[in-house]
Amino acid sequence: MIKNVIFDIGRVLIDFDFEGFVRGLFGAEKGEQVTQAMWKNPDWRELDRGVLSDEEVLTRFIDKAPELEHEIRYTFAKIGDCAQLRDGAVALIDRLKAEGYGVYYLSNYFEYIMHTAPWALDFVPHTDGGVFSCREKVTKPDRKIYDILCGRYGLVPEDCVFIDDTLANVTAAENFGMKGINYVSQGFGRLYGQIKELSE
User: Tens of pLDDT along 126-135?
Assistant: First the structure.
């Protein structure tokens, strides 16, 4: 029986369209180059892991495309504008809470965007708690981060459903013992229905 709902944040509870954001800043061609140097760079995970400084990670991005140093630094400085809380996110959380579910978050998230886009996290006080990767120095899909969440809040994996836009993270949660939902913009109405189906 599902007693707890665990949400990823980016591209689930909040909009974070990095590619569209940089296209708007620099146009299609240069925007794709910046996306390759930053968002699609494996070193992006180091932002979320929170072990290296922001400047160290930026240096890695710039090393990939030194001719784009200005654009990379400008994008990072403005990245808070990319994160917006989705309409209906808080209402969904409140509805689940009112029905007796525990509601938590588990996200690969970095400190800089917490400070530059605080509005995107307005849902947090409505939850029962959660885990940010940058605070734990470990990212999904590492099994350890699921264990940290469950251990901190006394959650039984089999009583939980985990919702994430990245299939690898959902699979890792399922391997940990949770139910999983791969969220691909199906809308909160349908997502609520999926949660209820798993609860039956």
Answer: 999 999 999 9
DSSP assignment of the chain equals ---EEEE--BTTTEEE-HHHHHHHHH-HHHHHHHHHHTTTSTTHHHHHHT-S-HHHHHHHHHHH-GGGHHHHHHHHHHGGGGEEEPTTHHHHHHHHHHTT-EEEEEE---HHHHHH-GGGGTTGGGSS-EEEHHHHT--TT-HHHHHHHHHHHT--GGGEEEEESSHHHHHHHHHHT-EEEE-SS--HHHHHHHHHHHH-
Domain containing residue 170:
4-15+83-199
Structure tokens at 9: 């944040």
92 and 189 in a single domain? The answer is: yes
Distance CA 65, CA 38 (A): 9
Specify the number of domains making up the chain. Answer: 2
Q: What pLDDT, on the 0 to 100 scale, is given for residue 1?
A: 87
Closest among 39, 102, 87 to 65, alpha carbons compared: 39
